[in-house]
Amino acid sequence: MKPFFLQSIVLIITISFIHGQQYVIKQDFRNSYQYNSYSVFTNNGGRLIYRLETQYSLTYSGTIKSILPLNDFIIVARIDTFLGSNQVFTFRILDPRLGIWIDGRIYQRSALIYAIELNYYQQIIIELSPPRTPEMSSLNTVRFRDGLMTNKIYADYMQVSPWASVYDLRLFSNEYPIELYLVGFAVVQRRTQIIF
User: Fold this and answer.
1) Which of 98, 118, 140, 185 is the most exposed place for a label (fewest CB within 10 A)?
2) 179 and 76 in contact (C-beta within 8 Å)?
3) Of 80 and 41, which is predicted with more confidence?
């Protein structure tokens, strides 16, 4: 009986740790050379931990920086369009747990579906929920789910209100680093308007 009791306590602690990973993403004011830039904060909004900077020149590109003390940073992800396409993107993310770069690509299957392909043929689907009304088109919930198991959700984000460019990002699994979800966020948010 004791081992089962201890296993349940460990399971509860693990679930609360995984479900405790929440972040706030706020859009920054536009600069002349940046298309969209975002700041990622801890859940209480108190500490800046990442910066997402995207640019449009002839093609779309982006950089994700992990913010260090004393206004220093480390580049932890890069995003580029694939051969000038507006629907296929390549990326590299630095996995902080393993200390290696992971290559992948994201392609847009439809207006509501994106697919992330990683090394070793892993696939994650990004699903945008359709808006209930045209006025709510910016309030889509965006889910990151397993490519094979539709009920396995890794993370999601949602815009807090239609008037503020503030998003809540929740992680339900620590199977992939947060940088992967930030890359997906940057690619999905690149669009200026969704046409349904």
Assistant:
1) 98
2) yes
3) 41
